[in-house]
Amino acid sequence: MPFKKLAVAAALIGSTAMASAFAPPTQHLTLTYSGPDIVTGFTGIGFVDSSTFLQGYLTTFTSVLFDSTPVTILGGGTSFQIQSSSTSLTHTVDIYADVMSMPGVVNPAPKFSTSFTFLTTPTQVQTPSTQFTPPSAPVPEPESYAMLLAGLGALGFMGKRRAAKQA
In sequence order, what E strands does the chain have? Predict the structure, then answer.
Protein backbone atom coordinates (compact mmCIF):
# COMPACT_ATOMS: atom_id res chain seq x y z
CA MET A 1 0.00 0.00 0.00
CA PRO A 2 2.75 2.58 0.81
CA PHE A 3 4.32 1.91 -2.60
CA LYS A 4 1.10 2.99 -4.35
CA LYS A 5 0.99 6.22 -2.36
CA LEU A 6 4.61 6.97 -3.22
CA ALA A 7 3.99 6.23 -6.90
CA VAL A 8 0.96 8.54 -7.00
CA ALA A 9 2.88 11.31 -5.21
CA ALA A 10 5.83 10.95 -7.62
CA ALA A 11 3.47 11.07 -10.61
CA LEU A 12 1.82 14.25 -9.31
CA ILE A 13 5.16 15.93 -8.65
CA GLY A 14 6.44 14.88 -12.07
CA SER A 15 3.37 16.20 -13.88
CA THR A 16 3.64 19.52 -12.03
CA ALA A 17 7.32 19.81 -12.96
CA MET A 18 6.55 18.98 -16.59
CA ALA A 19 3.79 21.59 -16.71
CA SER A 20 6.11 24.30 -15.42
CA ALA A 21 8.98 23.21 -17.70
CA PHE A 22 6.81 23.74 -20.77
CA ALA A 23 5.32 27.07 -19.75
CA PRO A 24 4.16 29.15 -22.71
CA PRO A 25 6.16 32.21 -23.72
CA THR A 26 5.30 35.48 -22.05
CA GLN A 27 4.89 36.91 -25.55
CA HIS A 28 4.88 35.15 -28.94
CA LEU A 29 5.27 37.41 -31.98
CA THR A 30 4.98 36.45 -35.63
CA LEU A 31 6.31 39.31 -37.75
CA THR A 32 5.63 39.36 -41.50
CA TYR A 33 6.88 41.81 -44.11
CA SER A 34 4.47 42.41 -46.99
CA GLY A 35 5.92 45.42 -48.79
CA PRO A 36 7.30 45.82 -52.31
CA ASP A 37 10.98 46.14 -51.30
CA ILE A 38 13.61 43.39 -51.05
CA VAL A 39 14.32 42.20 -47.50
CA THR A 40 18.04 42.28 -46.66
CA GLY A 41 17.94 41.62 -42.92
CA PHE A 42 16.17 41.98 -39.62
CA THR A 43 16.93 43.81 -36.40
CA GLY A 44 15.14 44.06 -33.09
CA ILE A 45 15.53 45.20 -29.51
CA GLY A 46 13.73 44.64 -26.25
CA PHE A 47 14.14 46.34 -22.92
CA VAL A 48 12.57 46.18 -19.50
CA ASP A 49 10.46 49.06 -18.24
CA SER A 50 12.78 50.46 -15.55
CA SER A 51 9.89 52.03 -13.62
CA THR A 52 8.89 48.56 -12.43
CA PHE A 53 11.83 48.62 -10.00
CA LEU A 54 10.38 51.75 -8.40
CA GLN A 55 7.06 49.91 -8.08
CA GLY A 56 8.74 47.17 -6.01
CA TYR A 57 9.51 44.51 -8.60
CA LEU A 58 11.84 43.87 -11.50
CA THR A 59 11.10 42.13 -14.78
CA THR A 60 13.92 40.13 -16.35
CA PHE A 61 14.15 38.28 -19.64
CA THR A 62 14.85 34.61 -18.96
CA SER A 63 15.25 33.70 -22.63
CA VAL A 64 14.46 34.99 -26.10
CA LEU A 65 14.18 32.81 -29.21
CA PHE A 66 14.48 34.27 -32.70
CA ASP A 67 13.21 31.74 -35.26
CA SER A 68 13.84 29.02 -32.61
CA THR A 69 17.46 30.18 -32.08
CA PRO A 70 18.44 31.52 -28.63
CA VAL A 71 19.30 35.22 -28.42
CA THR A 72 21.88 36.55 -25.95
CA ILE A 73 20.28 38.38 -23.03
CA LEU A 74 22.15 41.55 -22.06
CA GLY A 75 22.36 43.76 -18.97
CA GLY A 76 21.68 41.05 -16.43
CA GLY A 77 18.39 40.12 -18.09
CA THR A 78 17.12 43.62 -18.80
CA SER A 79 17.57 43.79 -22.59
CA PHE A 80 18.19 41.85 -25.78
CA GLN A 81 19.20 42.70 -29.32
CA ILE A 82 18.61 40.76 -32.54
CA GLN A 83 20.75 41.23 -35.66
CA SER A 84 20.11 38.95 -38.62
CA SER A 85 20.98 38.95 -42.30
CA SER A 86 18.08 36.58 -43.02
CA THR A 87 16.05 37.52 -46.09
CA SER A 88 12.97 35.67 -44.86
CA LEU A 89 9.69 37.60 -44.99
CA THR A 90 8.43 36.04 -41.73
CA HIS A 91 10.15 35.73 -38.36
CA THR A 92 8.97 34.52 -34.97
CA VAL A 93 10.15 35.89 -31.66
CA ASP A 94 9.34 34.11 -28.39
CA ILE A 95 10.06 36.19 -25.31
CA TYR A 96 10.15 34.56 -21.89
CA ALA A 97 10.13 36.97 -18.96
CA ASP A 98 10.04 36.51 -15.21
CA VAL A 99 9.26 38.80 -12.29
CA MET A 100 11.23 39.20 -9.08
CA SER A 101 9.21 41.03 -6.47
CA MET A 102 10.03 42.62 -3.19
CA PRO A 103 8.04 41.67 -0.08
CA GLY A 104 4.59 43.23 0.02
CA VAL A 105 4.12 43.52 -3.76
CA VAL A 106 0.93 41.76 -4.87
CA ASN A 107 0.69 40.15 -8.33
CA PRO A 108 3.47 41.97 -10.21
CA ALA A 109 3.35 41.38 -13.96
CA PRO A 110 6.24 41.49 -16.45
CA LYS A 111 6.48 44.80 -18.32
CA PHE A 112 8.78 45.41 -21.28
CA SER A 113 8.95 47.12 -24.67
CA THR A 114 10.11 45.80 -28.03
CA SER A 115 10.82 47.23 -31.46
CA PHE A 116 11.58 45.27 -34.66
CA THR A 117 12.67 46.40 -38.13
CA PHE A 118 12.82 44.56 -41.45
CA LEU A 119 15.87 45.92 -43.28
CA THR A 120 14.92 46.41 -46.91
CA THR A 121 16.26 47.85 -50.13
CA PRO A 122 15.70 50.69 -51.05
CA THR A 123 13.84 51.69 -47.83
CA GLN A 124 13.51 50.45 -44.26
CA VAL A 125 10.18 49.34 -42.89
CA GLN A 126 9.70 49.78 -39.16
CA THR A 127 7.20 47.53 -37.48
CA PRO A 128 5.34 49.28 -34.70
CA SER A 129 6.88 49.15 -31.25
CA THR A 130 4.98 47.09 -28.74
CA GLN A 131 4.65 47.57 -25.03
CA PHE A 132 3.79 44.37 -23.22
CA THR A 133 1.79 44.54 -20.02
CA PRO A 134 -0.13 41.33 -19.40
CA PRO A 135 -3.40 41.28 -17.49
CA SER A 136 -3.10 40.77 -13.76
CA ALA A 137 -3.31 37.24 -12.42
CA PRO A 138 -6.86 36.03 -11.80
CA VAL A 139 -8.05 35.84 -8.21
CA PRO A 140 -9.86 32.59 -7.32
CA GLU A 141 -13.52 32.91 -6.41
CA PRO A 142 -14.60 31.85 -2.89
CA GLU A 143 -16.54 28.97 -4.50
CA SER A 144 -13.24 27.55 -5.77
CA TYR A 145 -11.87 27.42 -2.25
CA ALA A 146 -15.12 25.85 -1.00
CA MET A 147 -14.90 23.11 -3.65
CA LEU A 148 -11.24 22.48 -2.79
CA LEU A 149 -12.05 22.13 0.91
CA ALA A 150 -15.07 19.90 0.18
CA GLY A 151 -12.90 17.63 -1.98
CA LEU A 152 -10.20 17.41 0.66
CA GLY A 153 -12.85 16.66 3.28
CA ALA A 154 -14.29 13.86 1.12
CA LEU A 155 -10.81 12.37 0.66
CA GLY A 156 -10.20 12.50 4.42
CA PHE A 157 -13.57 10.88 5.12
CA MET A 158 -12.87 8.09 2.61
CA GLY A 159 -9.41 7.51 4.07
CA LYS A 160 -10.73 7.35 7.62
CA ARG A 161 -13.50 4.99 6.57
CA ARG A 162 -11.02 2.73 4.76
CA ALA A 163 -8.71 2.70 7.79
CA ALA A 164 -11.64 1.76 10.07
CA LYS A 165 -12.57 -1.17 7.76
CA GLN A 166 -9.02 -2.53 7.84
CA ALA A 167 -8.80 -2.38 11.64
Answer: 27-32, 38-48, 57-66, 69-71, 73-74, 79-84, 90-101, 112-121, 125-126, 130-132
